[in-house]
Specification:
Layout (H helix, E strand, L loop, with lengths): L1 H13 L14 E7 L11 H8 L6 E5 L5 E6 L1 H8 L4 E6 L2 E4 L4 H4 L7 H5 L7 E6 L40 E6 L2 H6 L19 H10 L3 E6 L2 E6 L7 E6 L1 E2 L3 E3 H14 L3 E4 L1 E3 L11 H10 L4 E5 L18 E6 L3 E2 L1 E6 L4 E5 L12 E4 L7 H4 L8 H4 L3 E5 L5 H10 L4 E5 L17 E4 L1 H13 L4 E6 L3 E2 L27 E4 L3 E4 L18 E4 L2 H18 L5 H9 L23 H4 L6 H4 L4 E2 L4 H10 L4 H8 L21 E5 L6 E12 L5 E8 L4 E6 L2 E4 L5 E11 L10 E9 L5 E10 L4
Parallel strand pairs: 6-10, 6-13, 7-10, 13-15, 15-16, 16-26, 20-21, 21-22, 22-23, 30-37
Antiparallel strand pairs: 1-3, 1-4, 2-3, 5-12, 5-14, 8-9, 11-12, 17-25, 18-19, 18-24, 19-23, 20-24, 27-28, 29-31, 31-35, 32-34, 32-36, 33-35, 36-37
């Protein structure tokens, strides 16, 4: 043993790559190192010993990764990181980045019914474990009761970590595990995590994690509401599923890649079945998969049979705004449900303009007040009602029109209140269109769409004595049309690989009621003294856990299904019409939506339990896909952990990944009639003896053929492949505003199974 220690010390002293601790030139930062684990010299008993001997001294290492990723994160200077890049065992180095959170009735809106269908067949998701990567959890909420739940599954290996106001007693048969990951955050924030507003533990100081956890798997909670809004029974999509909380995001500080990767590593070891991660890039830049720790961590999870659900981001309605693009991740956009919280702006000229609000204080009771628009002066900061921009002489005793953007919506109301205003009308700009979300305002306030906002501003500027009031109308259920694609929901095309349609599907993400922390009020603002057991939030953050809960139900009903099969079941059985039996519409424009907005469609769990056919994908298929987009073996190993080989004779096509959607991408340089063929393989998960026939909806100006047009399955033959050939005359096809045209191929067996895949045809050069 002594000789091996001496040998390791000699190796340490002689290594040309060892960090120089005395010649640092720049401020230290956190870097993540992807290491070829097989290169570890045999003299080291563990990878940690190797890393702390040859790469960085022990005190600088934050996390060591074993399960989804071989490597470590450490606090070093950029110069030291550059030195280590040349080490033969280092496959990749990337700087730790900060990411952002993508911030009662929805289960029924997804087609779930008590004692029937998927809830019944899956026993409400019992014994499936959902790992929620978020801001932690507030364990005392009724949504996390373990009443009448069975014992914790024996396969579970997780822990209940202790910390500030959190200990083993806060876990139970519902919350089976809780961890917190703070080392990256502590290293990145001057002075470390602010313990006056945060808990150095799994306890949730923000509310977001409590909300997403209960959306996915909350137990039924009767007489639930947010200050009287959305009253009824609140329950998650998979009420009997177990929750494991992984706190990777911190109040007002976001989420660090190094901590997120550590959570993936722990969750795979612990034994979760589903991972729900409502987090995305905070800089608006889409990183390639080998530089994206969420993509890397989720690949490691998916390769172990874990379903990963992620949010599509809130940068819509701009094109190519969808995030979390890896094909092994299920990417979820947001839609409305058939419940609304109307609040009307009433003008002195008699016009009543529709808006929304969750204000629960003393109403205005029809009293009219002067109304003013600070933006009339031309100062954008005043029009946005930013801090210290409103002159009390101009707004005292008045309702103030504020433009949306640049600061939190509810914070604008506080600015108005401080300046003496009595109310606020929050007006969307053109980028938000008519998309509205409710907020629990601290003063009488409502949000209105862009068109209504323009009308109110015009009235305020043209009338000699403009006055207004706000009428708060409570909760209305059964609104039509619904679902509608939320204006903020991230949109396609896929900015990395347009051959893979993203988002995959949409789910409820607007005005969702779920459990809330007791640490902050419903607005999350420090000055909000209110406490509430439930809160109403909007965002793709809220849509993602709906799909996480759905995956738990499907996993419980079909334990042998892979993550890709579960996703396929959801995607091929979606709804494409709203409750008015019309095509889904885009909230931002009021026009018909496209697969770039909704992917395959709106989640429908009433059909997903029995999809008939699924499109399965193996780890080898994903590797072939990575080869097809030009990644070399060493680059792919950053993602897969193990060495790989790419085909040398014929480069594979990314369009041939066995995805439930189909995108045909033609280069802009091609002229005339061009064709592209993609292959799909369907696996029969329905009746053993079955015959499916193809029905084609060709995009306008495009010819689509399917061979064979008929798939015959037997007890012995459960998988059948077919070819889809897309032919387009580039001189005549009109791609329209989206730059694409859309169609579908649907397989039906003459009974209840209808298996639909959207087809997207576009012209685009390699990104």
């Amino acid at each position: 043993m002594a000789s091996s220690i001496i040998a390791a010390l000699l190796l340490f002293l002689s290594s040309p790559f060892i960090i120089s601790f005395v010649t640092s030139q720049s401020a230290a930062k956190t870097f993540i190192f992807r290491i070829d684990g097989g290169s570890m010299p045999s003299i080291f008993p563990t990878h940690y010993h190797w890393y702390s001997t040859e790469f960085a001294e022990e005190s600088r290492i934050l996390h060591v990764y074993h399960n989804v990723f071989h490597g470590f994160s450490a606090v070093i200077t950029p110069e030291e990181a550059d030195n280590l890049r040349n080490h033969p065992a280092v496959l990749a180095v990337f700087e730790d980045k900060r990411r952002e959170l993508h911030t009662t009735r929805s289960p029924q809106f997804l087609g779930l019914q008590n004692q029937k269908g998927l809830w019944s067949e899956s026993d409400y998701g019992s014994d499936v474990i959902i790992g929620v990567f978020d801001t932690g959890i507030w364990p005392e909420r009724r949504s996390f009761s373990d009443l009448n739940l069975g014992p914790v599954p024996k396969r579970w290996r997780g822990v209940c970590e202790s910390g500030a106001r959190f200990g083993p007693r806060n876990c139970n048969r519902k919350i089976v595990g809780a961890r917190f990951f703070s080392k990256g955050q502590q290293a990145a924030v001057i002075g470390g995590i602010n313990k006056t507003v945060e808990f150095l533990s799994p306890r949730d100081a923000d509310g977001h994690g409590t909300h997403t956890s209960s959306t996915a798997a909350g137990r039924p909670a009767f007489k639930a509401s947010m200050s009287g809004y959305a009253s009824g029974v609140a329950k998650g999509v998979a009420p009997k599923a177990r929750i494991a909380a992984y706190k990777v995001c911190w109040k007002d500080s976001g989420c660090l890649d190094s901590d997120i990767l550590a959570a993936f590593d722990a969750a795979v070891y612990d034994g979760v079945d589903v991972i729900s991660i409502s987090i995305g890039g905070g800089d608006g830049i889409t990183s390639p998969y080998y530089l994206d720790p969420i993509a890397i961590g989720s690949y490691g999870a998916a390769s172990e049979g874990i379903f990963v659900s992620s949010s599509a981001g809130n940068e819509g309605p701009n094109g190519m705004s969808v995030t979390n693009l890896a094909p092994w991740v299920t990417t979820v956009g947001a839609s409305t449900i058939d419940r609304n919280f109307p609040a009307d702006a009433i003008l002195g000229d008699g016009h009543r303009l529709r808006g929304v609000s969750l204000y629960a204080g003393v109403p205005l009771n029809g009293r009219m007040f002067p109304v003013v628009y600070p933006g009339k002066s031309g100062m954008s900061s005043a029009s946005l009602c930013m801090e210290n921009t409103l002159d009390p002489k101009h707004v005292k005793g008045k309702i103030v029109i504020c433009d949306r953007g640049s600061s939190p919506r509810v914070a604008k109301g506080l600015v108005v209140k401080k300046a003496g205003g009595v109310g606020m009308i929050l007006a969307n700009g053109a980028s938000n269109g008519e998309g509205l979300v409710g907020d629990a305002h601290l003063i009488p306030a409502c949000a209105v769409g862009s068109n209504e906002g323009d009308r109110i501003k015009a009235y305020a500027s043209s009338h000699p004595n403009p006055v207004a009031s706000i009428d708060f109308r409570g909760t209305i259920v059964g609104t039509k049309p619904a679902p509608v694609i939320a204006s903020f929901s991230g949109r396609g095309p896929n900015g990395l690989n347009p051959e893979i349609l993203k988002p995959d599907l949409i789910a409820p993400g607007v005005n969702i009621l779920a459990a809330w922390t007791d640490a902050v009020g419903p607005t999350g603002l420090p000055s909000d003294p209110r406490k509430t057991e439930f809160n109403i939030l909007s965002g793709t953050s809220m849509a993602c856990p709906h799909v996480s809960g759905a995956a738990a139900l499907l996993k419980s009903a079909h334990p042998d299904w892979s993550p890709a099969a579960i996703r396929s079941a959801m995607m091929t059985t979606t709804n494409l019409v709203d409750n008015s039996n019309r095509s889904l519409i885009d909230e931002s424009t009021g026009k018909s939506a496209t697969p770039y907005d909704y992917g395959s469609g709106h989640l429908n769990l009433g059909r997903a339990m029995d999809p008939g056919l699924v499109y399965d994908i193996t780890n080898d298929d994903y590797i072939t896909f990575l080869c097809s987009i030009g990644y070399g073996p060493k680059t792919i190993q950053v993602i897969t952990r193990t060495p790989v080989r790419c085909p040398t004779r014929r480069k594979p096509s990314p369009g041939n990944l066995n995805y439930p959607s189909i995108t045909a991408v033609f280069p802009t340089s091609r002229r005339g009639s061009v064709s592209k063929t993609v292959i799909r393989t369907a696996t029969n998960v329905g009746q053993a003896e079955a015959v499916y026939r193809a029905r084609i909806e060709s995009p306008r100006g495009v010819t689509v053929t399917v061979k064979p047009p008929r798939l015959v399955f037997t007890t012995a033959v459960k998988r059948r492949s077919y070819a889809v050939t897309v032919t387009v005359d580039t001189r005549n096809v009109v791609l329209g505003e989206t730059g694409a045209v859309f169609g579908s191929v649907t397989w039906f067996d003459g009974g209840k199974h209808v298996v639909r895949s959207p087809i997207v045809v576009t012209q685009m050069d390699s990104l």
